[in-house]
Amino acid sequence: MMERIAIISKIRLIISDIDGTILTSNHQVDEQLIEVMPELEKANIPFVLASARSPLGMQPIAHKLGLHDNPIACYNGALVLEGDRTIIQHPVDKAEIQELLNYLSTDYPSVSVNIYSGKDWITNELDKWSQLEGSITGESPIIKELQDTVSDSEPPIHKLLLIDEPEVIQDLHQKLLSMGFPQTVFYLSKDNYLEVTAKHVSKEHALLEVAKYYDIPLEQIMTIGDNFNDSPMLALASLGVAMVNAPEGVKKSENLVTASNDQHGVTQAIIEHVLN
């Protein structure tokens, strides 16, 4: 026990998920976490957000926490920003995305295709799915021909989001996994949301890159999350903290478990295992 406390006392960097972690079930930032942020700043311990969200979906949360200068890992690490400056990015392979768009137009025409490039959200029509996504995120898409967006003259593409009925998306997911897209990865973030990023993009990889950016070893990093896409990040850091509201498979024996996102779990973990 003393050895684990010794390790925990050396935490110099915290990387945290957003939804289900620092946000309550009402999608509000934990007020107690806002209060503890100055203590982390005083101790020179950066608090970095990592999420599948876009920059526009993350920056207001970062600002509410007072994290104006800290990097944020957007699109699960496909784009890492420090303020408005890009410090790390992993765009998708445009040739493979062009092939994907051609396949979707012929075999899955009902699927809503949403492209994310930096802070821009682009889709070819404001269908019911993009309207729903806009109501959730508070963002508005740019309406533009997707094939033009994928052209070589356009900026890098960091993520695609494919939306449809669950049975359609899950069928599509299985089909894409069996096809030849060596530079692209496909994963479900909801039963009807299929995320598309460059092959090596993940929160685990983002953790490694942010750690290198700060020149802090994994032995001195705490990670916090609530879902399966957070699990590799939790396992890689010296101290992985799972929310009690996480699925059982995330609350593994090697991870500490803190209170829920509605019971100030992140704040509790910081006070108990970092500031103390």
How would you explain this protein's 3D organization?
The structure is a single chain. The chain is an alpha/beta fold. The protein has an eight-stranded mixed beta sheet, with helices on both faces. A six-stranded mixed beta sheet has the order 8-7-6-9-11-10, with helices on one face. α2 (31-42) packs parallel to α10. Helices cover 36% and strands 23% of the residues. Residues 1-9 have low confidence and may be disordered. The two termini are 15 Å apart.
In a few lines, what is going on in this structure?
The chain is of the alpha/beta class and 276 residues long.
In sequence order, what are the helices and strands, one letter per element?
HEHEHEEEHEEHEHEHEEHEHEEH
Gross geometry: globular
Could you tell me the number of beta strands? 14
Helix content: 25-40%
Strand arrangement within the widest β-sheet reads: 5-4-3-2-1-12-13-14
Number of helices: 10
Q: Main β-sheet: number of strands, strand sense, barrel status? A: 8 strands, mixed
Radius of gyration (CA) equals 19 Å
- Low-confidence segments, given as residue ranges, are 1-9
End-to-end separation in angstroms reads: 15 Å
Mean pLDDT: 92
> How much of the sequence is in beta strands?
15-25%
The structural class is: alpha/beta
Relevant terms:
276 residues; eight-stranded mixed β-sheet; 10 helices; disordered N terminus
What is the topology?
Blueprint: H1 2-8, E1 13-16, H2 31-42, E2 47-50, H3 55-64, E3 71-74, E4 79-82, E5 85-89, H4 94-107, E6 112-117, E7 120-123, H5 128-137, E8 142-143, H6 146-149, E9 159-163, H7 166-177, E10 184-190, E11 193-198, H8 203-214, E12 221-225, H9 231-236, E13 239-243, E14 256-258, H10 265-275
Parallel strand pairs: 1-2, 1-12, 2-3, 7-8, 12-13, 13-14
Antiparallel strand pairs: 3-4, 4-5, 6-7, 6-9, 9-11, 10-11
